[in-house]
Structures are given as structure tokens and as C-alpha cells.
């Protein structure tokens, strides 16, 4: 659905491509349509190679890789043409076998989700066999018809970051930008899509709706920062304002589908609100400024009002039961379970819910910082249901996952959240070029703090 057009020269990207050096040796053939067939070795000449690029592999790469691996995009090399893919073929098996590419953190044993980016065993094997055979090209006439693009979403609000911005903090900068919400009547957001301005550096985007009564406090954050927008690691205020209840409108990661909310549902936005967009930039020397675009579809009414509910142990946040992650320790686990059916109507006054009513979970997300290694969210008590399990937490690949079968939570069911951290010297991030040392960690919004937060998209039944 997101056909990526080549915006930036490929040469620029290959320079940065240190960890695929075996593959990039072939980069001199990239860009030439005819050179590719020479690089693939003798197996291309056989009239019936068992697996060929055109007949078998192109469709897999297009569906599972090219959303990120195309010229000018976030991933460090292109897999978008035969020349590009054959040049790096020998570098592909390691990450395919390790399951790290394509990046798709949820464990399939827990649940199934829409817009699944993962690759199935047959498709993976096809690519591995192709590499094994010397990456034969085959005949372009054998190519299957291109996959049908899904119906485009009709957006009615088109926002852009207020000004172009070039991040300076390496390796990562979290910066929020505010935009006035343009609607003058109460409306519901039913879909959201992000088009990054500078694809090479935009790692993820989360859009929040700042309610009118908090708009002034957020504007003050923006004014206090001399650069466009303001720094905001963690939440939309970077921990300066209690932002746990600020509704998410949507999240985007590269290769992600435009966020179409579950049919008939939407998140209410009041006139006078602000849209705060948190940009996670993967700062990259030489990349141009970014001015990403956010498109939103609204509806005057929806069948079921939705809310993105953050879920965690309030005692960790308040510090009365500290979420201590001791310096130097691995395998540190904290978990929490609670029946939220009494709390939900308070958080969610427009949802038509009374205390104790059942509700429906449509999508789930987890949030930890960089020392997290594993997280899960599920139901316990009444029913034992897994909602989301991320067995190898990667801060860089966060997302919200829409359940193919929404789950109804009934009185007696408790939401259960569990996170595990590794706070040893081997698992410390680099911040602004400085390798961090282990120290005792508690709950907090800063890069040196940790969080363990579940976020569920819920409606009434
Ligand atoms: C959602 C975006 C995305 C998709 C989809 C994706 N990649 Fe990647 N890939 C990346 C990024 C970004 C990197 C750079 C390293 C990183 O940030 O993890 C990368 C790096 C790689 C590397 C270098 C080694 C490594 O693991 O870092 C290989 C090989 C690779 N990808 C192969 C593939 C293949 C094959 C597919 C499809 C089956 C694929 N990728 C799908 C984003 C993606």
C-alpha cells in the first residue's frame, strides 16, 4: 500500500552500510538494469532454475522487505530491484534465519494481528533457496501480477510539522511538534497515516490529542525550547506534565500500514485541542531536514467511542512501591494485575460504560525503554488470554498491534502486565556518544529511567 518512491540517491545509503559489507561488494552493479544477470553466476543460464527472482522471490521481497528496503528509505540498502537484491543476497540469510528481519516483535504463539509484517516459513525458505542457488534472475515474463493495492483511505485533515527540522542528538532524538486541531466541532478520529518527510531518519511517530485544558501547558514547553518543537523522550511532554492520560491518536513505524481504526470505532477529539506529534529520529549525519505529514480521517459520530487506555501499576509511578531495577542485575521482573472495569468509566466518561461493565480490547501495545528485554500483556483471573507478548523487546520497533479477534473483558478478568529488564553493563545504551554505566533504575520518563506500560485500544461491547 505504501509504494515508496526513490527520493534520495542510493550511493549515499550504501556508504552507511557497514554491517552488510559482503553484500555491498556488489553495489557497483546496483542501478544498472542489465548488470544484475552477470552477477548471479551460471545458475541463471539454466532454463529451469528451481527458484528465480522474477518468478518466486520478487513477490516476497516486495511484500515483506521493500516497504523499508528501498532507495532513500530507513533501511540501509535496497531490495527493490533484481540488481539491488542480488548484490546483497549473501547478507540476507543471517537475519532471516535469526528471525530479526522483517522486524515483527509480537510472538505468534500469543495472538494474530492485522498488518502482520512477519514472513512465513515457506516464503523465508524460498529466499534462502534462492540465495543458495546463487540468486538466479530468471525471466521477467514469469513475474506474478503485482499485488493489489488496498483501497486508499479518504483522509480529510492534512497536517504537516510546523517547520522543517534536522535532529542533532545522536543516535536518537525524541522531539515533539504541536499543531492546532483544525475542527470546530467535536469529532472522532477513525484513521491516521504518517508520511515521513526524510525517510532515512524517521524511526517512529506517535500522535497524541492534547485536550484543550492542557493546551497552554504544552505551548509553554514549545516556547521554552529555542528550536522548533521541544524534546520529549517517553511521553508527549517528556515527563514534564502528567501525560499518562493524554489520548494516543495513533502510532506509525516504517513499513507500517496507515492506521485504520477498527470498523465503527474512533477516538473523540474536542475543538481547541492540539495534536502533539512525537518524532523519534534516528539521527544520521548528512540527512536533510524532516517535515513529516500526518493525515487524519474523521467522522462526526461513531458506533462505539474508543479510548487508548494506558495500564500500569500506579504504585510504581507514585513510588510507593518502587519499580526498582538494581544496577548490574539481569532477569529483573516486575508484574502487575488489576481489574480495571471500575476505573475505565472514569478515564472514559464518553464511552457509555458503567463501573463493572464488560469492554472490548481491539489493539494492544507495550512500552519500555532501552534496558527492557521482554514484555507481555494479557488477561488473568476470569479468563487466561494472551493479548501481546514481545519476547525480544526492541525499543526501536514499538507499535500498537490490532487483534484479528477483539477480546471481551468481563467482570472478574484482570489485565496483567509483566516486564523484564537487563541492567548489566552489557545492556546499557549509548547516549549522545557516551556509553552509559549501570545504575539503580526506577520508573520515570527520562532516557535513564524505565517504564512498564501496556496500552490498549478499548470500546464498550
Ligand atoms: C519495517 C522495516 C523493515 C522491513 C519490513 C525489513 N527490514 Fe531489513 N532492516 C531494516 C532496518 C531499519 C535495518 C537496519 C538495522 C536496524 O535498524 O535494525 C535493516 C537491516 C537489514 C539487514 C542487515 C542486517 C541486520 O539485521 O541489521 C538485512 C540483511 C535485512 N535488513 C534484510 C531484510 C529482509 C530480507 C527483509 C524482508 C524479508 C527485511 N529486511 C525487511 C528495516 C526493515
TrEMBL record:
InterPro entries: Cu2_ascorb_mOase-like_C (IPR014784), Cu2_ascorb_mOase_N_sf (IPR036939), Cu2_monoox_C (IPR024548), DBH-like (IPR000945), PHM/PNGase_F_dom_sf (IPR008977). Transmembrane segments: none annotated. Pfam families: Cu2_monoox_C (PF03712). One of its GO terms (molecular function) is dopamine beta-monooxygenase activity. Keywords: Disulfide bond, Monooxygenase, Oxidoreductase. Residues 25-44 are annotated as: Disordered. Residues 361-437 form the Copper type II ascorbate-dependent monooxygenase C-terminal domain. This is Monooxygenase.
Amino acid at each position: 500500500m505504501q509504494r515508496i518512491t526513490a527520493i534520495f540517491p542510493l550511493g549515499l545509503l550504501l556508504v552507511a552500510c557497514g554491517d552488510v559489507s559482503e553484500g555491498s561488494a556488489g553495489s557497483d552493479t546496483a542501478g544498472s538494469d542489465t548488470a544484475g544477470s552477470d552477477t548471479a553466476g551460471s545458475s541463471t543460464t539454466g532454463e529451469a532454475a528451481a527458484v528465480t527472482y522474477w518468478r518466486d522471490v520478487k513477490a516476497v521481497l516486495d511484500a515483506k522487505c521493500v516497504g523499508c528496503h528501498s532507495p532513500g528509505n530507513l533501511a540501509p540498502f535496497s531490495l527493490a530491484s533484481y540488481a539491488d537484491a542480488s548484490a546483497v543476497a549473501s547478507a540476507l540469510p543471517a537475519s532471516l534465519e535469526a528471525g530479526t528481519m522483517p522486524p515483527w516483535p509480537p510472538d505468534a504463539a500469543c495472538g494474530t494481528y492485522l498488518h502482520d509484517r512477519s514472513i512465513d516459513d515457506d516464503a523465508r525458505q524460498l529466499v534462502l533457496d534462492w540465495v543458495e542457488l546463487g540468486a538466479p534472475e530468471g525471466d521477467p515474463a514469469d513475474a506474478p501480477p503485482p499485488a493489489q493495492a488496498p483501497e486508499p483511505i479518504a483522509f480529510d485533515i492534512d497536517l504537516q510539522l510546523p517547520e522543517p527540522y534536522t535532529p542533532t542528538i545522536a543516535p536518537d532524538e525524541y522531539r515533539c511538534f504541536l499543531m492546532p486541531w483544525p475542527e470546530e466541532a467535536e469529532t472522532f478520529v477513525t484513521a491516521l497515516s504518517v508520511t515521513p518527510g526524510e525517510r532515512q531518519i524517521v524511526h517512529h511517530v506517535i500522535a497524541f490529542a492534547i485536550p484543550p485544558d492542557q493546551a497552554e501547558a504544552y505551548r509553554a514547553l514549545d516556547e521554552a525550547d529555542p528550536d522548533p518543537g521541544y524534546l520529549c523522550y517517553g511521553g508527549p511532554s517528556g515527563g514534564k506534565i502528567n501525560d499518562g492520560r493524554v489520548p494516543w491518536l495513533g502510532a506509525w513505524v516504517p513499513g507500517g500500514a496507515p492506521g485504520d481504526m477498527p470498523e465503527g470505532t474512533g477516538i473523540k477529539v474536542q475543538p481547541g485541542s492540539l495534536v502533539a506529534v512525537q518524532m523519534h529520529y534516528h539521527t544520521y549525519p548528512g540527512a536533510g531536514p524532516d517535515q513529516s505529514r500526518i493525515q487524519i480521517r474523521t467522522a462526526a459520530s461513531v458506533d462505539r467511542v474508543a479510548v487508548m487506555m494506558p495500564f500500569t501499576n500506579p504504585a510504581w509511578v507514585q513510588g510507593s512501591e518502587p519499580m526498582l531495577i538494581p544496577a548490574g542485575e539481569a532477569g529483573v521482573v516486575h508484574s502487575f494485575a488489576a481489574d480495571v472495569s471500575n476505573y475505565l468509566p472514569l478515564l472514559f466518561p464518553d464511552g457509555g460504560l458503567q463501573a463493572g461493565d464488560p469492554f472490548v480490547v481491539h489493539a494492544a501495545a507495550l512500552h519500555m525503554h532501552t534496558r527492557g528485554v521482554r514484555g507481555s500483556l494479557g488477561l488473568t483471573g476470569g479468563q487466561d488470554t494472551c493479548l501481546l507478548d514481545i519476547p525480544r523487546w526492541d525499543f526501536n520497533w514499538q507499535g500498537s498491534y490490532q487483534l484479528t479477534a477483539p477480546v471481551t473483558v468481563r467482570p472478574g478478568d484482570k489485565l496483567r502486565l509483566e516486564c523484564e529488564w537487563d541492567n548489566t553493563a552489557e545492556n546499557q545504551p549509548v547516549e549522545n556518544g557516551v556509553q552509559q554505566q549501570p545504575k539503580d533504575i526506577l520508573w520515570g520518563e527520562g532516557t535513564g529511567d524505565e517504564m512498564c506500560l501496556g496500552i490498549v485500544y478499548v470500546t464498550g461491547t
